[in-house]
Amino acid sequence: MPLYRDEGVVLRTHQLGEADRIVTVLTRGRGKVRAVAKGVRRTKSRFGARLEPFMVVDLMCYEGRSLDTVTQAETLAPHGDAICRDYAAYTAATAVVETCDRLTEEGEIATQQYLLVAGAMAALAAGEHDATLVLDAYLLRALAVAGWAPSFHDCAKCGAPGPHRAFNVAAGGAVCLVCRPPGSAAPAPETLGLLTALLTGDWTVADRSAEANRREGSGLVAAFLQWHLERGVRSLRHVERV
After folding, report:
1. Are residues 72 and 136 in the same domain?
2. Domain count, the chain
3. How wide is the angle at C-alpha 88 spanned by C-alphas 209 and 222, nearest 5°?
């Protein structure tokens, strides 16, 4: 069995037997992997607390047929403790890792997705921005990396220069009057400006946004995410919105 080493973010864990645990990790170089951490639930485990969700770790594993085996784990960024102490950050982080798990496949290298989820964990742990803003920024960027970048300015269907007031999830974002399908939303221009800022990383604009625009933007992001994933992210229902 080949031995490999990589860094990754722990997305989720499952109990296995009385003392073991299966961990799902999105790694920088190998994509998403599932590995058995033997004895991790014992009090004297060598790396029990290191293999919890939201942690960034340096892993050494043996490659197996269906599941790999963790032989060593070192903490690179202990985000888990800070995130779990703040309910808003915790619920946002849970939605982030669930979305990341849904957007990635085992065996496919996903370096950009890894950098996004690692950055989201760092931002939530630091608490420098509102947790829901960090979550929505992650969701928009992760969808863009996956090939579903929304348009918030030009028409998503014909490319007519914007800004446009109508927004349609199925059409891909902002739509002009000619392309506007029935039932399209009409968000405030400030809301579309906020979503643009979150997608591009303009935190000066995002941090100054009004609560009403944040609520409206979060609804559009959640609808856009659900449309492309074809079913909702369960963790989103627990996220505290402003």
Report:
1. no
2. 2
3. 65
Amino acid letter, 74: E
Specify whether 73 is located in the same domain as 134: no
pLDDT in tens, 231-241: 778 888 888 66
Q: How far apart are alpha carbons 27 and 63 in whole angstroms? A: 14
Alpha carbon distances (Å) from 169 to 50, 101, 150, 184? 39, 22, 8, 8
Residue pointed to by tokens 């856009």: 224
* Owner of token pair 């420098």: 128
CA-CA-CA-CA torsion sign (230, 89, 168, 148): negative
Interacting residues of 236 by C-beta distance below 8 A, sequence separation 6+: 95, 222, 225
For 103-144, write each residue's pLDDT tens digit: 999 888 999 999 999 999 999 999 999 999 999 999 999 999
Classify the C-alpha dihedral 183-188-193-195 as positive or negative: negative
Domain boundary among 20, 53, 80: 80
Task: Give the pLDDT band of residue 192 (cuts 50, 70, 90).
Answer: very high
In terms of pTM, does the model score above 0.85? Answer: yes
